[in-house]
Amino acid sequence: MALMRGLRSFSVLGTNYAYSYISSQVIPARTVSLMQPLSKNKEITITFIKANGERIKAKGEIGNSILDIVVNNDLDLDGYGACEGTLTCSTCHLVFSKDAFKNLSDQPTEEEIDMLDLAQERGPTSRLGCQVIVTEEQDGIEVRVPAIINDARQT
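Structure tokens predicted for Adrenodoxin, mitochondrial (155 residues):
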């Protein structure tokens, strides 16, 4: 009966804890998790082709932006994504093949087009990586990273 009076329970972030107080010691009685495991999105692979011909393969989850993939894989693309996806620079400028460009899930916004106007080596299949959300259709694509990264905030 003394143990029952000392039994207390509470919930922290979906996990129930029950502790019994014996003398001045706290002894965990039982732990039960009520949380579902976090599901991981399917991964895709993108190959970045640098101006010097170096090819860098990276994996990313469907639903991430290409900028997220560069950052999460700690890729060596100097200056890439300087504004962290706020559409105030053009450092994440990429050039897609015609087929890959056609399969992108969305069209560039007016703000993205304005930033692309300031990018070096812009072509008809240019996009800002921070604005491209990858889908399963982009698995295995190759994108060209221009030789000159232009930070539009400094022009």
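DSSP finds four helices and eight strands in the chain.
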